[in-house]
Every structure is written in structure tokens, then in C-alpha cells.
């Protein structure tokens, strides 16, 4: 507290008794794109962020010009550093990591499977790959063209292998940033997976206009 | 108990032989007719559980389909086949009745489909097994328990885990059939699914508690195991089975843990069917309007114009760590300590050792000499011999010779040592006085 006022100070979090144990690790992870939720190993880190939310927000705003954001509802809330909504802050280009378009597309297909088609018991990486290849017939030509980068939009071994490898690398990327957990063949989406839809919410809400314009 | 035929039994080969498979697993119409009869028996429609050939044909025709010509001759052949494993014929009453295989076939199918969850039954089975195991006093009793009693209940225990698995799959299946359900009653289905999953979770807990007696069974088995190989293998199978049940319960638990939060999330997405439709159109937009571009070395996908890729993280910071290269700057080795031998001490010790060896040698020679003197002369004055040795060598060696000689005399029955209480001295050794000792050879 500065000058006896109730206002949160940027340095408050440094005096948290847990700061020594958690802050450095959380700081690296947040900058590395990790989303923190009340989930497994992240539980205590999430609590540290939650109890120092204001002070940490000031810290990231003041020194890095990025927003410590909080999203979700009920038990499914999560923290992350929003590099997107603030004109990319002061992060120099060489330090930015941009998610690959292939991963964005695969992320959306996983979202549709689980939250729209309600495949909520889908927990095997292998089955996910098979489902994308077999059950989503309409998407196939697009997936082959864009992800396998193949002119041949018919099913084939080569196309399927590239598709599988891309699904795998997308899952790896999502795991790194705390959107899902994955251990061997088992994966499970975390609340922060919703972030993908949040990022593109504006585009989704105006999709009909966009499509009309393109016609 | 003879395990020979079972151990050598090639199940697949036997099934493949002749028509064995078809006889054990009849075609649909025939199997359905058997099940029809089974149900009728259950409903007490047949006296003494026996039925006529006409009853069989009626059941066949039902399974065959209404309105189609019923080929009676074909089905008569089937009856003959069924007599192998399913039916028996009672000549006096001219009626058929079920063989044991037919009952088991139908019962198992029915129990699997009903899938009644009954942890109390499992608890009773486990405690029955535990009690009967504890009562087995002999190796034969233990083997009987392993081969007959436990094996009989194993399917029941396994079936309950299967049932839980199916219960969860069914709850979720209902959710997925969204085309069949309108938005309004979808909420009802979702609530029901949520409740079903919570119920499944309780079931897992109950079943786990029911299996807790298996811990005691395992302990008793380990205690009763006497190290006989055959019993050991059977006990291993029981332990593996318990572990299998436990692993499956764990995996069901994990599955529920993963699914339940997602069901809760569906409640939120429920209010946005329009949004979901838009997400689907957005995916189509991404698929249709994204392009593949050519980079320096490889092709990459670009999202449609206006749709930007998310910046999600800093590239991991790389720290410059300064540490000397081990190859270039190897660590200075510790100086090896050299120990210098003290040659004088080595020489002195060698001399001392040699002297001890030499003395022992001399003493032995003197002993042999004294004994040979006794053999030759029949007696010897041992006290005098002592002073002779002392004069030739030194008194301490003479003590050794005297002591060893007395020891050897004691061990030799033909020799005897006489000691007279009279002192024996020698002028050269004034400070040494001995009793007068004499060794005599007994004839």
C-alpha cells in the first residue's frame, strides 16, 4: 500500500509469502503463453495469481504493456497474458510467437467435435485423428488442401499421415499453453480451450456479413 | 487335479473343426428362437420346462419373420443341429428340454443386457470367497478354491465393471443424438446425463468398496502359498484379475473426471445454438477461404483476409549461460599422493618374520629329536633336555620346545609324562628352576 492508501501497488505481489516459490515460474509460464486454471498441477499457481491479481495486472501493464486477463465462468475460469487485445503491447517482433494457421483450424474442429457435436468422451489422441479423417467428410477436401497442402483432395495415405502429424503438433502446442492436458494417448480439454473461440468471437458473430460480402 | 487336457486344449482349433462353431453359436433366426423358448420357460409357459417340436417351429417362424413363407424343412434340420449342445429329447414324453449350455447361453446374454448394478452381490461374493478360502487347510483345498470356487464367480465380478463402462457410454450416446432431440428437451437430456454420470461415480465408489474384501483374499492367498509352482501360478492369476478390476475402475474414474466438467460446460453452450451455428460457418469460412502460400522453403497456410493469427506467447527467452567448456578447460586433476616405503622398517619386519619362521623350524627339529630319543632309549629326562636346548639356542625357544613336546606326549597314548616334585636346576641358568620331568615309553 502506498502512502497509506487502499490502492493496490504494483509491488504488492512481491510481499506475498508464496512469491518466492511461485512468481518466477509463473512469470516465465505466462510470458510463454500458458493459461492458468484451477486444474491439477496449476491449482496453487492459479491461487497465487488470483490473490495477487490487481498487483500483477499493474506489473504486466506497466513494464510489459500486456494485459493479465481473466476469462471463463464458474469453476472454469482462467488467467493468461493477453498479447492480442492490446495492439501486441511492447513485445518486439522477434519475441512474438504466432500460432500457426493449421493449428487454429484444427483447434476449431476439435471445438466443434466436443462442444457442438458433444463428443465429450473423446479422450484418445488416436481416435481424435481417426475421427477427423473419417467422420468429417465435408471438411476433408479443405483439410487436405490446407493442411496436407496437397492438390489431391482424395483420401490417401500421404494426406492422412500429414493430417495426423499436424493434429499431433496442434495438440502439443495446445498442451504447452495450458489449453489441454495430454499424456501419451490420453488428452483432455481444459477450460482455457474456450479461449480459441473468444479470440475469434468478433469474426464469428459477424460471419454472415463476411460471407455475404464474399459472395 | 489333472490339468493336462485343459493345458493342451486348442480352443480355436476345435472351434474351427467341422461345424463346431455353428453348433455353439447358431445363426440369428435359430438363436432368436432359442431365446424365445428361454423366455417362455422363464414365464412358466411349459410344463416341467419341456416343449414340443411344434413349440420350436412356432418360435422359429416368429424369428423368421411374419408374412414370409416358412421353410419348415430347413428348420427341422436346425433342430437336429441344436440337439448337439442346446436341446435334449425326452422319448417317453416326446418333448424337448434345454441342455445346460442353452441355459447358460441365454442367461449370460440376458444378464449382460440387463446389466443390473449390484454391488451388494459383489460384496457377498467377495466375503463368501474370503471365508471359504480361510477355511481351506490343505494344499488340495487351496487348489480347489483357486480352480473351482474363485473361477465360478470371476465372470460376475468382471461383468459389474463392464456394466459401469456401458452405463457411461449410454448416457453420453443419448446426448450425441441431437438431431432427435429438440432444444427444449435437450436440457432435460443434459440434466439426466449429468445425474447419470454422478450416479456412475457413486457406483464406482460402491463397487470399489465391494471389492475391498479382495485385499484380505490376497493376503490370505500369500500366507497360504507354500511355494508350490502350480499353486503359485494360479494365485498369480487371481492377483492379476484383481489388479485388472482395479485398473478398470481407475480408468472409469478418470473418464468420469474428464467428462463431467464438459457436460457442465455444455449447459453454458446450450443457450447459444445460434452462436454454435455461426462457429460452424466460421469453420467453413476458414476451410474455404484460407490459402496455401509459398514461403522460402516450404508451403504454409494463411487464414482468410482479415482473420489474424493469435499471438499467444513470447518466444521462450534464451539465457546466455557462461560456463567453461569441459573439453577446452578440463578440471585440474587432484594430485596423486605417493607413499614412500620405509626400507629400514621393511627390512626389520622381514627379519623378524624370518626369525619367527626359523625358530618354529628349529623348535620342530628339537621336538622330533626328543621324541626319537624316547623311541630309541625308552625314556628321556625332559628337564635335562630343556637345558640342552636352551644351551644350544636360547631359553625362550627351549620353553616352546618343552611345551610342544608335552602336548605331543599327551596326544600319544604310548608315552607318559612323569613329574616328580623335585626341583631340577642347571648351573648355567641360575634363574630357571623346573620340576623334574621324565617321559617314559609304555611297552
Task: Kindly describe this structure.
The complex is a heterodimer of chains A (215) and B (443). Chain A is mainly alpha-helical. Chain A folds into two domains: 12-95, Arc Repressor Mutant, subunit A (Orthogonal Bundle), CATH 1.10.10.2250; 101-214, Arc Repressor Mutant, subunit A (Orthogonal Bundle). Helices cover 49% and strands 11% of the residues of chain A. Chain A contains ten helices and six strands; from the N terminus they run αβααβββααααββααα. Chain A is elongated and about 60 Å long. The radius of gyration of chain B is 49 Å and the shape is elongated. Chain B has three domains: 4-110; 115-271, Up-down Bundle (Methane Monooxygenase Hydroxylase, Chain G, domain 1), CATH 1.20.58; 354-441. Chain B is mainly alpha-helical and 443 residues long. The mean pLDDT of chain B is 84. Chain B is built from 16 helices and eight strands. Chain B has helices at residues 4-7, 11-16, 20-24, 28-42, 53-64, 72-85, 100-114, 119-134, 139-176, 183-210, 213-224, 229-270, 273-289, 343-377, 382-392, 395-411, and strands at residues 87-90, 95-98, 291-294, 299-302, 311-314, 379-381, 415-426, 429-441. At the A-B interface, strand 4, helix 4, helix 6, strand 6 and helix 8 of A face helix 9, helix 12, helix 13, strand 4 and strand 5 of B. Strand 4 (96-98) of chain A pairs antiparallel with strand 5 (311-314) of chain B, so a sheet runs across the interface.
Provide a concise account of the structure shown:
The complex is a heterodimer of chains A (215) and B (443). By secondary structure, chain A is mainly α. Chain A has helices at 19-31, 43-51, 53-64, 101-116, 125-134, 140-146, 157-176, 195-199, 201-205, 207-214; strands at 36-37, 67-71, 78-82, 96-98, 180-183, 186-189.
> What count of domains describes the coordinates of chain A?
2
The whole-number mean of residue pLDDT values of chain B reads 84
Q: Which secondary-structure class do the elements of chain A indicate?
A: mainly alpha
Strand content of chain A: 5-15%
Q: Could you give the order of the helices and strands of chain A?
A: HEHHEEEHHHHEEHHH
Count every helix of chain B, treating DSSP H or I runs of 4 or more residues as helices.
Answer: 16
Query: What characteristic shape of chain A results from the CA principal axes?
Result: elongated
What is the helical fraction of chain B, as a range of percent? 55-70%
CATH class identity of the largest domain in chain B: Mainly Alpha
